[in-house]
Amino acid sequence: MTLAPFGRRLAPLVENRRIGAYQLLIVDDPDGPRDPQPGQFYMLATEERWGAGEGERPYLPRAFSFARAREGRLWFLLEDIGPGTHRLAQVGEGENLWITGPLGIGFDEPAGRPLLVGGGIGAAPLLCLQDQLGPETKVLLGFRSADHAEAANLFAGEPQIATDDGSVGKHALVTELLREELDLRPPTSGLRPTVYSCGPPPMLEAVRALASERGVAAQLALESGMACGFGACFGCVVPTKDGYVRLCVDGPVLDAADLVPGGVGH
Amino acid sequence: MTLAPFGRRLAPLVENRRIGAYQLLIVDDPDGPRDPQPGQFYMLATEERWGAGEGERPYLPRAFSFARAREGRLWFLLEDIGPGTHRLAQVGEGENLWITGPLGIGFDEPAGRPLLVGGGIGAAPLLCLQDQLGPETKVLLGFRSADHAEAANLFAGEPQIATDDGSVGKHALVTELLREELDLRPPTSGLRPTVYSCGPPPMLEAVRALASERGVAAQLALESGMACGFGACFGCVVPTKDGYVRLCVDGPVLDAADLVPGGVGH
Amino acid sequence: MVDLCGVQLRGPVLNGSGTYDAIAARRAFGDELLERFPFDCFVSKTITLAPRQGNPPPRLWETPAGLINSIGLPNKGLAGFLAEDLPKLAELPVPLCVSVMGFDHDELNELVATVGACDEVALMELNFSCPNVETGLIMGADPAETAAAVEALRPLTQKPLIVKLTPNATEPAAVARAAEAAGADGVSLINTLKGMALDPKTHEPWLGGTTGGVSGPAVRAIALEQVHSVSKAVQLPVIGMGGIASGRDAADFLTAGATCVAVGTESFRDPAAGARIGAELRALSRKEREFSSGAVR
Amino acid sequence: MVDLCGVQLRGPVLNGSGTYDAIAARRAFGDELLERFPFDCFVSKTITLAPRQGNPPPRLWETPAGLINSIGLPNKGLAGFLAEDLPKLAELPVPLCVSVMGFDHDELNELVATVGACDEVALMELNFSCPNVETGLIMGADPAETAAAVEALRPLTQKPLIVKLTPNATEPAAVARAAEAAGADGVSLINTLKGMALDPKTHEPWLGGTTGGVSGPAVRAIALEQVHSVSKAVQLPVIGMGGIASGRDAADFLTAGATCVAVGTESFRDPAAGARIGAELRALSRKEREFSSGAVR
Ligand SMILES: Cc1cc2nc3c(=O)[nH]c(=O)nc-3n(C[C@H](O)[C@H](O)[C@H](O)COP(=O)(O)OP(=O)(O)OC[C@H]3O[C@@H](n4cnc5c(N)ncnc54)[C@H](O)[C@@H]3O)c2cc1C
Ligand SMILES: Cc1cc2nc3c(=O)[nH]c(=O)nc-3n(C[C@H](O)[C@H](O)[C@H](O)COP(=O)(O)OP(=O)(O)OC[C@H]3O[C@@H](n4cnc5c(N)ncnc54)[C@H](O)[C@@H]3O)c2cc1C
Ligand SMILES: Cc1cc2nc3c(=O)[nH]c(=O)nc-3n(C[C@H](O)[C@H](O)[C@H](O)COP(=O)(O)O)c2cc1C
Ligand SMILES: Cc1cc2nc3c(=O)[nH]c(=O)nc-3n(C[C@H](O)[C@H](O)[C@H](O)COP(=O)(O)O)c2cc1C
Ligand code: FES
Ligand code: FES
User: Fold this and answer.
1) How much is the pTM?
2) Is a pLDDT exceeding 90 seen at residue C205?
3) Which of A43, C8, D253, D284 could cross-link with A100 by S-S, CB 3.0 to 4.6 Å?
């Protein structure tokens, strides 16, 4: 886990590019640490006019996994789903972002054969994980459609793709790719696989159930509504076998074995 | 008095140009009336990201005299003094403004020899008044400095200028120009003058006092904090000899004779 | 159609008292105002027995997503209202609700009896909750005081009496229950929350009235909670308001138990906001189950 | 230096209870947190006698310029706090104020006596005002109940006792006066205002706890008014809070009569907000006359 510099800092936008259905934001973060851990996240807001969109929001910063950290630059991949992501998606070059981070606990150092399983925008933290683990790392990605699946091009090698509408890759859910992969190379053969996954709650729930069924270790990067990102508000809790934990300081990556069925977040 | 179409409407920005210390905004208003009366005003806000500047404001629309109305286009001259004017000053081409108006009661049809006396951004409503009265209309303008005085170039003929720092025109207050003008052509000689004036409260107070001293009619375009601009909130009152009146529906132009000394607004 | 205390309205969107002067708006917008009248029932600014000038300016202060006002109920008084305003308000295409406030019981009695006798008036609202004049707040926060006032007024008119509750109370639901028991026909809430701001230059209170009342989106969540708890506490129809700026907001208040909603500060941003909110609400109603059932109970 | 109930602070900026977990923040930011500690006195999250899980999620809802939370006082309980948290909080470079809440008088007595006996603790705050658990609100809105509680607690410790007032009361100044008469050493306000939001999709209450408390700039004007009226009513030092986001805001609260200010929700936007606000305040103080005089009285 990499510590964050204390407080928020300004990071100029270097690039804001559309990648299919998503938006890629690259910011300069010379004062931040060079080695955030995959699965850690940053709280982002714009320096100017953060807020007063539809319904007078956003007001609080928003949480984003970094998708890549290179030469003092941070990559974020985001999906425009509400006032905060909408404003961020529109940030122009020359504008600054307020950033705090890296925050939270990312993926554990991999033991065994890593299997990266992403759904939609959940691909973001898997990109830097693949950067770390090497281009040969197996990546399975599920998307709604071809437009969303363009994000797969950011990955090295040949990620396996499933889409909801069959427009690219297999016409299936990504958990089906995972099931096939586990069937093909069962945990009993060779190096034991460890699943690293991020995606929407139903997908993570399916990954959790599948991993538990097959006796495979799985680390899941969860989401929940966050106000602060550094443990201050106690707002981001998810239920675990040990009770509620704050996802921002005890996660966002949790061991699937610690989760209660159905508890992967709202 | 020209009626406003009911409700607010979107008006695309056509031009946003710096004029010295001020900003000139020109918007397209094809659905608005062609003949707003000088002294009437519009309530303006931006369509997107109105608000959440410094201190999470602006929230309400802001009042602006139109400075010119030509071929379905409205000119506004504004001074960036707070979150609302700051946001408006930054509006880019292609963005829309929300506009409501024309509102309020403007200057009366001129009787006698018109004398236009403006201070600072108060020049705005005098510009369209000169457009209406003709280029030969006498205009006296006071500004803080040469930078502000650039607005005088918008006027026809040769407006007389006074600046606080003497950088352009006479090193004086505009009320001194008015006093000289009245001394030169006293009300008793030829056509009686009528003063049409807009500017900061201390200037208007001086104009009021001078007009009253010389027995000259004066119409003053006042300002006060407005929330609605159409008489709904009762917030914009100024004291008159008849008690408080709502500046947005009973003004913004008031007859100097109706004002109480010191009552030209906060 | 919406039934509000027996009065049939073409829809559920009212204006908040004191946030729309239909007479002044008609001067600004002409008869287009009547053709496209934004509310389904018009609520007058609160009137008092004697004329009032209102509080000294400045009367307004913008807050983050809101507004503080210290207007202080300027009005022509009962006689002036009846002579000058009532005939003009009678020309509006919707039923009229007149809001009244008294500084003592005698004043209130006279206001209710006189206004209640006017054919032009469909409903009356009792403003027990203005934060900007001395009396309103105290009465409206106290269940017993509220009950006593309503009991005294109830026999004086046949017209429905709606009690406007203050949000500056420990338990608005208790006040609402007291009003119901005393014979009120409806309750409306919230009025503004007490607030204050200092002049950034002089550091003295900005508002001429020192303190004021906060309204707008900033107070919406507070209003929704109060509307919900009051709706649970009484059988009476509830008029919900406080920061409503969209059909979605209005739908939330109806879902929380309100029968009607009122739009206040949002009209300052758009004189036709009431109509927009009504239209958005109709569009939502078609998509969602019937709101007026007060689903969240 | 600022004197808060006899405790010397290097400045007037505290955190609002429950809005900063210095232990978690140290995990995130390391010892840089201690080197640049943003507050002049640290207030713990409210602790209760027994451990609490807190309310079910979702616990947060963003509002225009604000936040509703329904956290529900999750904490390790008194024993867990003393064993695990207190030693770590003692490492902070500023005095410690521990916030406590009891579900009955016995619980409160035990909390105050035990915490009051800890050398690490400089002050205690009595949270009579949490809107998210059943008991707090009722006690804190009632002057007599507040007085009874403070009277019983006063003899149990030598440490200063600060009563945290609820804004959900008809007259916070009356509660403050009662607390003063009963022996409280200070009052703090405002806690959050009761609020509610519906899920835009299901139209059910969004928050796991159904209702929550509103904080942030949206409530600032309301808070300032209450701080002003409470400051006028009591001689006690007042800790003012509610939407403070800048040195200007903090200065306004001090001008309105507060001795100290607390920063809550703004820390969520910037973990170092307390330090920025403190610095802005110092810059202003140099320009303006002394704030702590409580100019607006
Ligand atoms: C650790 C972590 C990492 C993340 N990484 C990424 C990433 O890499 N890329 C990415 O695109 N996203 C990421 N997210 C998700 C991202 O934070 C959200 O998409 C973002 O906060 C949405 O903000 P918004 O303002 O656009 O939408 P909002 O409207 O704030 O949120 C969208 C949804 O949240 C709910 N909601 C919560 N509060 C409210 C409210 N007050 N009003 C309305 N709806 C509300 C609703 O269900 C709504 O549909 C991550 C989240 C976490 C916690
Ligand atoms: C009829 C009329 C016509 C006008 N015509 C023009 C024009 O043609 N051109 C032009 O430039 N201006 C014009 N104005 C003035 C213009 O409306 C104001 O400059 C504008 O509203 C300022 O808004 P702001 O957000 O930039 O600044 P604000 O900060 O809103 O206002 C600036 C000043 O207003 C006071 N104020 C009021 N409320 C607050 C608050 N909540 N917080 C802080 N300060 C507050 C303060 O003294 C502050 O310094 C006109 C005003 C009126 C009434
Ligand atoms: C400028 C202004 C004046 C008001 N005057 C009155 C009034 O005269 N009588 C009354 O009962 N309420 C009055 N109110 C309160 C509103 O009717 C309404 O209860 C409150 O503003 C909350 O709704 P909103 O947030 O939609 O504005 C006034 C509110 C504002 C903003
Ligand atoms: C997430 C959250 C948790 C809170 N928890 C507590 C608490 O445990 N005890 C308490 O006395 N106040 C609690 N509060 C109230 C704050 O201390 C403060 O009174 C309030 O938020 C107003 O200040 P602000 O607007 O600066 O946040 C909490 C507030 C928030 C937002
Ligand atoms: S987001 Fe505030 S504690 Fe996790
Ligand atoms: S600005 Fe609202 S009445 Fe004039």
Assistant:
1) 0.95
2) yes
3) A43
**DSSP tag of A256:** G
**Mean pLDDT, to the nearest integer, of A189-210?**
92
Q: What is the pLDDT of residue D285?
A: 82
Q: What is the ipTM of this complex?
A: 0.94
Report chain C residues whose CB lies below 8 A from the CB of B58: 62
What are the residue boundaries of the structural domains of chain D, listed by start?
2-54+75-195+219-293
- Is D60 in the A-facing interface, judged by CB distances under 8 Å? yes
Whether residue A162 contacts residue A183, with contact meaning beta carbons closer than 8 Å, is answered with no
The answer on pLDDT for A110 being more than 80 is no
Q: Closest by alpha carbon to B32, among B17, B12, B47, B50?
A: B12
Determine the Cα–Cα distance for residues A33 and A5; give it in Å rounded to an integer: 8
Tell me what percent of the residues of chain D surpass a pLDDT of 90.
89
| Minimum CA–CA partner of B8 in chain C | C270
3-state secondary structure chain C: CEEECCEEECCCEEECCCCCCHHHHHHHHCCHHHHCCCCCEEECCCECCCCECCCCCCCEEEECCEEEECCCCCECHHHHHHHHHHHHHCCCCCCEEEEECCCCHHHHHHHHHHHHCCCCCCEEEEECCCCCCHHHHHHHHCHHHHHHHHHHHHHHCCCCEEEECCCCCCCHHHHHHHHHHCCCCEEEECCCEEEECECCCCCCECCCCCEEEEECHHHHHHHHHHHHHHHHHCCCCEEEECCCCCHHHHHHHHHCCCCEEEECCHHHHCCCHHHHHHHHHHHHHHHCCCHHHCCCC
pLDDT of residue C134: 58
Tokens of A261: 């069925």
Query: Quick check: B37 and B107 in contact, CB under 8 A?
Result: yes
Tell me whether residues C246 and A56 touch, CB distance under 8 A.
no
Which residue carries 């708890």 as its tokens? Answer: C229
Q: What is the fold of A9-103?
A: Elongation Factor Tu (Ef-tu); domain 3 (2.40.30)
Q: Indicate the DSSP class of residue A56.
A: G
- Under the banding of pLDDT at 50, 70 and 90, the label for residue C110 is very high
Distance B238 CA to ligand 6 centre (A): 11
* Whether the domain at A9-103 and the domain at A113-258 fall into the same CATH topology: no
Fold (topology level) of C2-54+75-195+219-293:
TIM Barrel (3.20.20)
Residue D221, chain B, CB below 8 Å: the answer is no
Least confident stretch, A104-113, B12-21, C62-71, D254-263: A104-113
Q: Is B234 in the pocket of ligand 6 (CB under 6 A)?
A: yes
Please report the atom of ligand 2 found closest to the CA of residue C60: 38
Q: What angle do the packed helices C143-153 and C134-141 form, to 10 degrees?
A: 100
Cα distances (angstroms) measured from residue D37 to each of A43, A186, A245, D17, D141: 20, 51, 25, 16, 34
Q: Is the dihedral of CA A81, A82, A86, A88 positive or negative?
A: negative
Residue with tokens 């229950």: C177
Chain C residue nearest residue B235, CA to CA: C59
Instruction: Over range C6-14, report the average pLDDT.
Output: 98
**Does 3.40.50.80 match the CATH number of domain A113-258?**
yes
Q: Among the options D5, D41, D97, D130, which is catalytic? A: D130
* D71 contacts D127 by C-beta, under 8 angstroms: no
Residues whose CB falls within 8 Å of the CB of residue B229, separated by 6 or more in sequence, listed in order:
B41, B42, B43, B61, B63, B100, B101, B103, B104, B248, C268
Ligand nearest to the CA of C189: 3
Q: Where along chain B do its domains lie? A: 9-103, 113-258
